Amino acid sequence: MKKTVLLFLAAALFAGTSCGQQKTTPQEAAQAAAPAEAAYKVKTIAPTVTGDAILNSITADYKGKVTLIDFWATWCGPCRMAMKEIDAIKPELMKRGVQFVYVTGETSPEATWTEMIKGIDGDHYRLTKAQWDELCTRLQIPGIPSYMLLGKDGSVAYSNLTEGGYPGNDIIKAEIEKALQ
Question: CA-CA distance, 154 to 65, in Å (whole number)?
Answer without folding.
Answer: 8
